Amino acid sequence: MLNGHVIALGISGSISAYKAADLASKLTQAGADVDVLMTGAATRFITPLTLRSITRRPVFIDMFDPASELAEEHVEIARRATAVVVAPASASTIARLARGAATDVVSLTVLATLAPVLLAPAMDGQMWEAAATQANIETLRERGYVVVGPDEGRLASGRMGLGRLVDTETLLGALKQTLGRDGDFAGRRLVVSAGGTREPLDPVRYISNYSSGKMGYALAEAARDRGAAVTLVSTVTERPCPYGVRLVPVETVADMREAVLTACDGADALIMAAAVSDYRPAERAVRKVKKGPEEKLLALEKNDDFLLEIGGAIIKVGFAAETDDLLANARVKLDAKGLHLIAANDLTAEGSGFATDTNQLTIIDKAGEVEEVPLLSKYDAANRLLDRVAPLFDS
Ligand code: CTP
Predict the structure, then answer these.
(1) CA 395 from chain center: how many Å?
(2) Is residue 85 one of the residues assigned to a domain?
(3) Enclosing domain of residue 12
(4) Are residues 143 and 201 in the same domain?
(5) Number of folded domains in the chain?
(6) Catalytic residue numbers?
(7) What is the pLDDT of residues 335-379, one digit of tens each?
(8) Residue from 315, 333, 346, 362 to probe ligand 1 pocket by mutation (most atoms less than 8 Å from CB)
């Protein structure tokens, strides 16, 4: 989604400046043109050559450079940027921005731009907590700047505390959310379920399925990037929650049912991407079940289908992962569960299904129309499904 964007990346003097190289690299790989701006202090921590090599573009340091190709350099960079990211933002850069002092290329560009500005503070914990820094950050927040972090952890001083630059993934998430805040899902509340539910047999064993949660997470990110406020009800523990998404961690079907029903109150749409267990063990042992000489039969009870319980004005979208009779099975589920759309996917198809990074969806609507979406990354496939959800809000 960063294709065609021009991101002005301001780097100020902090030991974490080396991490800005990773950000510049990821932004470039994602298709953005990156204009790097460095304060004099930043050049003491990381070389302009590194950034120039990564972005394959000139790096701006000197605001009075007579050799510059750009006439009013800072104004031109500020004008063409679709977002300005200051990472790391040191305490003194934050102070300059709060004062509106334009004494280097970074503060000049921030002052001159009309694009959204993201700040990722990084400094020692005591500097972050200092009354002056806190007041400056508050001022900048009130002016609409997006402040991301800082994180807590080990600082360059060796102490633990708040002051670490957030990781690149978080910053990219915050940037995408900011760029998409006026998208076609702006003002919409979306609930997404993800992962496979786990039904415990005893304290060490459970029944589950192979769902990785990747499709649900891709949907949550894609909806966030189009302006939605997203609640993600997820069983997945090994994947970080996308930035800006509200995570409700769950384990069993009963947990998921309760979390989804609560989150759906006042929501505009529900997308059930989770693979929900149809059965649970009739008994859950409190202590570990020990082996014996006899065979064991597992008695299972049926779980209720909670998609059926959700009514009202909400748009409901289900998934049907099948190995046989894909379209016929998906159509039956669409009707039986009262869905607006169902996304069917053939688990036997190459590149589709659980744990893959790609998916080939077949979307069926209430009228029975079938849309064959090609094999795409799960993020792109999620956007194709959201393209079908958006028009339903107004119908
Ligand atoms: N679903 C649900 N509650 C359940 C079971 C499923 O809300 N107890 C939702 C799933 O999240 C999915 C859709 O219903 O969006 C279809 O789920 P699936 O497991 O494919 O269908 P089932 O109705 O359980 O049928 P079967 O397992 O026999 O294919």
Answers:
(1) 28
(2) yes
(3) 6-179
(4) no
(5) 2
(6) 209
(7) 999 999 999 998 888 888 777 899 999 999 999 999 999 999 999
(8) 333
pLDDT (tens digit, 9 = 90+) per residue, 171-212? Answer: 999 999 999 999 999 999 999 999 999 999 999 999 999 999
pLDDT, position 350: 83
209 and 158 in a single domain? The answer is no
* Domain assignment present for 80: yes
Q: Which residues pair with 320 in a beta bridge?
A: 344
Preceding amide of 293 cis, omega within 30: no
Beta carbon of 320 within 6 Å of any ligand 1 atom: yes
Residue 156's pLDDT is 82
Which pLDDT does position 83 carry in this prediction? 98
Residues 164 and 306 in one domain: no
Distance CA 20, CA 88 (A): 7
- Predicted TM-score (pTM) above 0.85: yes
> Where residue 116 sits, what CATH number does that domain have?
3.40.50.1950
Complete DSSP assignment for 216-283: HHHHHHHHHTTT-EEEEEE---SSPPPTTPEEEE--SHHHHHHHHHHHHTT-SEEEE-SB--SEEES-
CB 271, CB 192: distance < 8 Å: yes
Residues 162, 205: one domain? no
The residue type of 197 is T
